[in-house]
Amino acid sequence: MARINQMIKRVQSLNIDLMSELSIEDTVYKLVEKQQEQMYEGIDSDGGEREPEYSPFTIAVKQSKGQRTDVVTLNDTGSFYQKMVATVQGDSYIITSGDEKTGDLLTKYGPDILGLSTPYKSRYVSEDLRPAFMANVRKELKL
């Protein structure tokens, strides 16, 4: 085990910003998962329910497919969800989708369809980011 002076030097030299960035990069796929969970619940990044609601025609089509109609999930074929990516920029992130319908969905439902609401951000931090951060710190400190 490291001597106390060696441990103090390691802790003092720890680059917290770098540990944060690495931890976000390590868990970027979890951001996408949380985004998909939130979207499936019909919740926007501002925490509100997605509007406008589905039209009667869309509800009939979705019912025939056995899909949810009580909230706007933006998940019909699955392509929008499947092509979602989160990009890390420093200590923050951007979520988007490479699906061809993304622009149309943003126009119809607004930019708040992408991005995590406060409860989903909190879940991401507690369930995913914090454990990754602690693992990266332990690794850097050789604990």
Quick recap:
With 143 residues, the chain is mainly α. It is built from seven helices and two strands; from the N terminus they run αααααββαα.
Give an overview in words.
The chain is mostly helical and 143 residues long. It has one domain. The chain contains seven helices and two strands; from the N terminus they run αααααββαα. The chain has helices at residues 4-13, 16-26, 28-40, 56-64, 79-82, 102-109, 118-141; strands spanning 84-89, 92-97. It has a two-stranded antiparallel ribbon with strand order 1-2. A hairpin with a 2-residue loop joins strand 1 and strand 2. Helix 3 runs antiparallel to helix 7. The model has no long low-confidence stretch (mean pLDDT 93).
Globally, the shape reads elongated
Mean pLDDT: 93
Q: In terms of per-residue confidence, which ranges show pLDDT below 50 for 5 or more consecutive residues? A: none
As laid out across the biggest beta sheet, the strand order is 1-2
Which secondary structure elements does this structure contain, and how are they paired or packed?
Layout: H1 4-13, H2 16-26, H3 28-40, H4 56-64, H5 79-82, E1 84-89, E2 92-97, H6 102-109, H7 118-141
Antiparallel strand pairs: 1-2
Comma- or semicolon-separated keywords:
single chain, mainly alpha
